[in-house]
Design brief:
mainly alpha, 0% strand, elongated
Length: 69
C-alpha cells in the first residue's frame, strides 16, 4: 500500500512539473508565478500527507509483537 501511494504521488508531481514546463512557453509571468505557487503548495500538501501516512503505516506495532512479555 505505501509503495502504491508513493508511485501515485510521484506521478502526480511529474504531471504538475510537466504542466509548469508547458505553460512557461505560452503564458505571461504572472500566470506562471501563480501556477508555480499553487503547484508548490500542492506538492507540500502531498508530501505532508505522505509523511503522515507513512508514519501511520510504518510505526504501528504488529499484533504478534504486542503480547511478548
Amino acid at each position: 500500500m505505501p509503495g502504491v501511494l508513493a508511485l501515485y504521488l510521484f506521478s502526480l508531481i511529474m504531471y504538475f512539473s510537466f504542466i509548469t514546463r508547458y505553460l512557461q512557453e505560452s503564458a505571461n509571468d504572472f500566470v506562471i508565478l501563480v501556477l508555480k505557487t499553487v503547484i508548490y503548495n500542492c506538492k507540500l500538501l502531498i508530501f505532508k500527507t505522505a509523511k503522515a501516512l507513512s508514519l501511520t503505516f510504518f510505526y504501528q506495532r504488529p499484533r504478534f509483537l504486542s503480547n511478548t512479555n
